[in-house]
Write a structure and sequence with these properties.
This protein has helices spanning 2-14, 17-46, 48-57, 63-85, 88-94, 96-100, 102-107, 112-131, 192-196, 261-266, and strands at residues 150-159, 167-176, 180-189, 200-209, 212-222, 229-235, 240-245, 248-253, 259-260, 278-282, 287-302, 305-315, 322-328, 334-341, 347-357. With 358 residues, the chain is α+β, with helices and mostly antiparallel strands. It has a domain at 86-94 and 133-357: YmcC-like fold (Beta Barrel), CATH 2.40.360.
């Protein structure tokens, strides 16, 4: 009895009812927190997954209907549109021709008759071209409509037949007062090519008489380097031409009807192609005699508009360079496509994207 009474007295004096209550409350709080944490984890795992699965399973049903509708429309429209509007088709077909034409003549001298036959066929084509629906070329100049006073043409520049343009070009022709003209041709690269290659600018100024353009000055500038700047001065009173480069000047006899590279392309507004097949040309560095040939007629698509163009090409005897021009028949034979074959085999092509005339 003494021990029990002593124990009860010790408990009553040492442990109060407040401490016992605090211990019970602490135990309940810990149990509640553990259950809450477990409940939250289950909630976060369960909720999003079924909604995502339901959203993905509803997508496939409309697909078969759309695919059938598109498939029915494709075979009717695409085959008819491609051969009419895409420009690279005539480009890719005609690119191998300038590279292959010289080889048969030079590599097979035994077949001389084939060369004569080729010349005869080409001459027959020219005669047929004159005889059909181009009689206006042989008529006097008074019957032709007056030349344009202003021509502005934008070009896209392609290198070696690539589909993406490597640059842009612009040619502007202006008939100034008192029978004078001004021509300016600028070619610029795009992107990285613009950093590697400078701007090419050509200018031609001169008079306009009854025979067409009569250049007085011509300038070729490939960037700012003096070694890439050439100039030509035409003195028609004394019939001399002065060519100026970084190495000095040279004076030569000036043949009648000589043109510079730029004025030559716009002379066809006054003297239509195939009327005179021989021409003297200068690029500011040299003067030479050229002969251009009739290559045929092509249909080009310029700014979504089909154009009939006369295709000519001119070369120089001792050079591998070749320049081809496509002249728009319905626009006084203004050039709408220019292709040049360089000595190193590079092909640079300019195709018009916009043509404005006044």
């Amino acid at each position: 009895m003494i021990n029990r009474q002593s124990l009860r007295h010790w408990v009553r004096t040492r442990i109060s009812w407040q401490l016992a209550l605090a211990l019970c409350i602490s135990l309940l709080v810990h149990l509640f927190l553990l259950e809450e944490a477990a409940w939250q984890s289950w909630f976060s795992d369960d909720v999003p997954t079924p909604t995502l699965l339901q959203a993905q399973l509803e997508v496939p049903p409309p697909k078969p209907v759309q695919a059938a509708a598109v498939h029915a429309a494709v075979p009717r429209k695409l085959p008819a549109a491609k051969p009419r509007k895409v420009l690279p088709a005539p480009v890719s077909d005609s690119l191998p021709q300038p590279l292959k034409e010289p080889s048969p003549v030079a590599a097979e001298p035994v077949e001389a008759s084939s060369v004569e036959e080729t010349d005869a066929i080409r001459q027959a084509e020219i005669e047929a071209w004159h005889a059909t629906d181009h009689t206006g070329i042989a008529e006097p100049e008074e019957s032709l409509p007056p030349p344009y006073q202003r021509v502005s043409t934008d070009f896209s520049v392609y290198v070696n037949g690539e589909e993406r343009p490597a640059g842009s070009a612009k040619i502007e022709y202006v008939q100034e007062a008192e029978g004078q003209y001004a021509l300016r041709w600028i070619v610029e690269g795009r992107g990285l090519l613009k950093l590697l290659y400078p701007t090419l600018e050509q200018q031609s100024h001169g008079d306009i008489d009854q025979h067409g353009l009569k250049p007085r000055t011509y300038r070729y500038a490939f960037g700012d380097r003096a070694s890439k700047i050439y100039e030509a001065s035409f003195d028609w009173e004394t019939n001399f031409i002065t060519l100026k480069t970084a190495k000095g000047e040279q004076r030569q006899n000036l043949p009648r009807d000589t043109q510079d590279i730029l004025s030559f392309m716009y002379q066809f507004m006054f003297v239509p192609p195939l009327q005179e097949m021989h021409v003297s040309l200068t690029n500011g560095r040299r003067l030479g005699a050229y002969q251009y040939e009739f290559e045929g007629e092509d249909t080009l698509v310029i700014a979504d508009q089909a154009m009939q163009a006369v295709h000519i090409a001119h070369t120089r005897g001792e050079s591998d360079e070749k320049i081809e021009l496509w002249l728009a028949k319905d626009y006084r034979y203004v050039p709408v496509k220019i292709r040049k074959l360089e000595k190193n085999g590079m092909v640079i092509e300019q195709v018009a994207t916009r043509l404005a005339t006044e």
